[in-house]
Structures are given as C-alpha cells and as structure tokens.
Amino acid sequence: QVQLVESGGGSVQAGGSLRLSCATSGYTFSTNFMSWFRQAPGKEREGVASIYTRGISTYYADSVKGRFTISQDKAKNMLYLQMNNLKPEDTAMYYCAAGALNSGVWATASKYKYWGQGTQVTVSS
User: How many helices and strands, by DSSP H and E, does the chain display?
Assistant: First the structure.
C-alpha cells in the first residue's frame, strides 16, 4: 500500500526558505509522476511542481518558477520541495501526491491516486 507523509512546513517571513519532505513507501517511484500541490483556504488545490520519477524531467507552476525546486532521492524513498524567496501568497497547505501517468496532467489533482496528509506553510509579510 502506498503511503506518503509530508514534513517540513512552518511559519517564515517573506523572503525566507523552507524545505518540504515527503517520505514514501509502497513503490511510489513506479507511478511516473510525483508532485507537490497546495491549497489555500477557499481556493482550489493547485499543482506546484512535479517530477518524472523514471527520469529527470521537472515541471513547475509559473507562480513558483525560479523559486521552488522539486527533487527526489530514490535510495531514501524521499521527495523534496525546496522553497526559496517565499511570498505571503505561498501560504497554503502543501500536499505530496503520486500516481499521475503523463506530463500533460501533472497539475491536475484528480489524476493522482495517492496523497499525503499535508503540511502547513505560512508566510508573513
């Protein structure tokens, strides 16, 4: 059974950095794409970044390009999201997800079968 557990969230001031981690189990790295999503109160869940687990391709939402970096450590079964130059609009619950099958749907939440419980990120101005 696939399990995803996020950690690393917290409260920072604008301009600060956080590194989110997602501990995985159950062959998640065979699911082609693993991603980070976020959801702010009253807003839809949005794709932030994705990585092709069988290669090195990465994908980012325009709002985080140049500030966020997604990476994986297959030996440790870990997924990461390094977030730099954080802005108040980055405040949200961040989720790790696995199961999308192609790059065309990496940002579509409904294409993911497996989800973590989320970790809160709060950025103050």
Answer: 0, 11
Q: What is the pLDDT along the chain (125 residues), one digit of tens a residue?
A: 889 999 999 999 999 999 999 999 887 666 789 999 999 999 999 999 999 988 889 999 999 999 999 999 989 999 999 999 999 999 999 999 998 888 889 999 999 999 999 999 999 99
> For residue 92, which of 50, 36, 22 has the smallest C-alpha distance?
36
Q: In terms of C-beta density within 10 A (0-12 exposed, 13-18 middle, 19 or more buried), how is residue 118 classed?
A: middle
| DSSP secondary structure code for residue 31 in this structure | S
